[in-house]
Amino acid sequence: MNLLNYLAKKEEEYRDFDPLRAPYIFSKLAKDSKNLSNPKCKIIQILGTNGKGSTGRFLALMLRAFGFSVGHFTSPHLLSVCERFWLNGENLKLNVLDEALNKFDFEVLEEASYFEILTFLSLEVFSSCDYFICEAGLGGEYDSTATCFKSYMKVFTKIDFDHQDRLGNSIREIATTKLNAISVENKCVFVGIQEHNEVYNIATNIATLKNVKLKTIKTIPQYIKDYCKLNNYPPYQYENLTLASAVLCELGIDKESLYKIPKLDLLGRMQKLRDNVYLDVAHNVSGAKEILEVFRNSKIILVYNSYFDKNPFEILKILRPIIERVEIFEVKDNQRIITKDSLCEILDSLHIKYCDFESINSNHTYLVCGSFSVVGEFLSMGF
């Protein structure tokens, strides 16, 4: 069975939360798989709202620099599903994923969601690594990565508003849902720098209840600032790298590993595509605040579109001081994308100039953002 063809039969990447479905399917698959039933790797799970991908990849790069075998499962992808499966510096080839998929019982797998299938695949292919850095999907305690895998450590990036329809309408509800993923077998739990102080309090209460060691990060060390400036990383990466470095120190590896790692190799994280074109997968209010900080003293043309449930009004309101104009980027065949009429109404209400995107002009600075779909389709067009 071809993975891409099999995934095409599935509809949405995430189905409604069912805390029983994924572990039930996983337990049946594990009966026939030593990789699932008895993995050799130490699993470090990354959860949160923003920064999961970068934090996980920084940690993977540092561990790899010290000679460990490391797998990193991240989501979503921009151009190829292979981007989700990084092993020792390279994305796995599709034929490797096809081979892994065909070890599973397809009758058992029938009820699994798109994301759950990829979750099971991740452990199948990374089971023999020293470390498996496993990024959660949109959830916390009910996410398939949390309900199926026993993690050695859990690492929480910034927790903020996103996916309110599934996680709750307040920071307290969202943070509680995510932090409830803390489990008694965790050797240590890390909570990165937070905008909302109540996240720290909730983490402390849950970790105390479950008798788990908790480390909270509230400041950025000078050596992280120096390293990020040296490598021209945007300000939001300072926090992600601080968190990854703290985990590394807990594993007994010195901070000097920073100077052994290559540049971050994830697409769409303030990626400089050309001298005047930047790509970023920011898609929520918290991400908009981070972009504002990057371009605070500039004016940009924003190549933009958004899912209707991502609060595009508030995002554009935050970015308005740096926007010269918005160029609306068409995203085809995606039912979650806001209608063009609705987006135009928002832009009119904010008094932001706009037009349709057609091409790149070398005399202007462009930022392409709004969703993974926007950045992915832009990249696929070969600009």
TrEMBL record:
<protein>
    <submittedName>
        <fullName>Mur ligase family protein</fullName>
    </submittedName>
</protein>
<keyword id="KW-0460">Magnesium</keyword>
<dbReference type="InterPro" id="IPR036565">
    <property type="entry name" value="Mur-like_cat_sf"/>
</dbReference>
<dbReference type="GO" id="GO:0016874">
    <property type="term" value="F:ligase activity"/>
</dbReference>
<dbReference type="InterPro" id="IPR001645">
    <property type="entry name" value="Folylpolyglutamate_synth"/>
</dbReference>
<keyword id="KW-0067">ATP-binding</keyword>
<dbReference type="InterPro" id="IPR036615">
    <property type="entry name" value="Mur_ligase_C_dom_sf"/>
</dbReference>
<keyword id="KW-0436">Ligase</keyword>
<keyword id="KW-0547">Nucleotide-binding</keyword>
<comment type="similarity">
    <text>Belongs to the folylpolyglutamate synthase family.</text>
</comment>
<keyword id="KW-0479">Metal-binding</keyword>
